[in-house]
Design brief:
- Helices cover 39% and strands 15% of the residues.
- By secondary structure, it is α/β, with parallel strands linked by helices.
- The chain folds into 2 domains: 29-115, Rossmann fold; 140-262, NAD(P)-binding Rossmann-like Domain (Rossmann fold, 3-Layer(aba) Sandwich), CATH 3.40.50.720.
- β5, α7 (171-180) and β6 form a beta-alpha-beta unit.
């Protein structure tokens, strides 16, 4: 039976370090950093994410400023709201909640946020720096997956990792992070032929397709580590991309819920502090 790679202990460890770092930052800056959320419309999942962000940031002591815009917000109004936050020195990080209303241009959020305040790694500048191996604020979800692997001592270097999904916010950055950690990486997607034949080669299998139950036991190499980023709701129940029965084959598996999702907001706290230090000139003691 697979070891459960629970996310909560990982998140706790990240937040404990963040509290210590926050105290040091406040001593130097005279105030805590601040995260700004921008929510346009009434998408229930986005609103729930804002509430979850508040819970996590409240635990550390970092204030969160919410900017709420109507569902019919004009593009110019959204641009103005984000520009105001970009220019506000009190704001260290900005996250624009997805999905945005359909009438707004696709990808507009990545165009608007100042890369220096891009705590969720969505801007072209952040993505480019990550791709070429320069310091960057990474997308919080895949960075959380990497934190889980590190916390549980899962060996990455020299291993074959297979990532299912090529989205710019999860699959692709996760592949880049695994490459940076010296894994050999294969990225699969909807047009991959004979997906099970590829996934059975994986020492580390990452599911980030957003398709509930996509990964079945026969697709997993015995003893493999499986990281499940999938979040879907079926009959009111949260399920991942990986069937629970995979736990009978895999060596280690992140549960859904309670796995990768638990770490995402802790990484967001970590990124907010990193952005705040950078704005302060990187003058962190020690």
């Amino acid at each position: 039976m697979a070891i459960a790679l629970e996310g909560r202990p990982v998140a706790r460890a990240i937040l404990e370090r963040a509290r210590e770092e926050l105290a040091e930052y406040v001593t130097q800056a005279g105030r805590p950093p601040e995260l700004a959320t921008v929510l346009a419309g009434d998408d229930a999942s986005a609103a729930a994410y804002v509430r979850a962000i508040h819970r996590t940031f409240d635990r550390v002591g970092i204030p969160v400023r919410d900017v709420t815009l109507p569902g019919d917000v004009a593009e110019a109004e959204l641009r103005e709201a984000v520009a105001h936050l970009n220019a506000d020195p009190a704001v260290s990080g900005i996250i624009v909640l997805q999905p945005l209303p359909r009438h707004l241009p696709a990808g507009i959020a990545s165009e608007l946020v100042d890369p220096a305040k891009d705590v969720d790694g969505i801007t072209p500048a952040s993505a480019g720096r990550l791709a070429v191996g320069l310091p960057a604020l990474p997308p919080s979800t895949p960075a959380g997956g990497m934190a889980i692997l590190e916390h549980y001592g899962i060996e990455i270097a020299g291993r074959h990792a297979v990532v299912i999904g090529r989205s710019p916010v999860v699959g692709l950055p996760m592949a880049l992070m695994l490459i940076a950690a010296d894994a050999t990486v294969t990225v699969c997607h909807s047009r991959t032929s004979d997906l099970p034949a590829v996934t059975r080669q994986a020492d580390i299998l990452v599911a980030a397709a957003g398709r509930p139950g996509l990964v079945r036991p026969e697709m997993v190499k015995p003893g493999a580590t499986v990281i499940d980023f999938g979040v879907s709701f079926v009959d009111g129940k949260m399920i991942g991309d990986v069937e629970p029965a995979v736990g009978e084959v895999a060596g280690a598996l992140t549960p859904v819920p309670g796995g990768t999702g638990a770490v995402t907001n802790a990484i967001l706290v970590q990124n907010t502090l990193r952005a705040a230090w950078a704005a302060l000139g990187g003058r962190r003691a020690g």
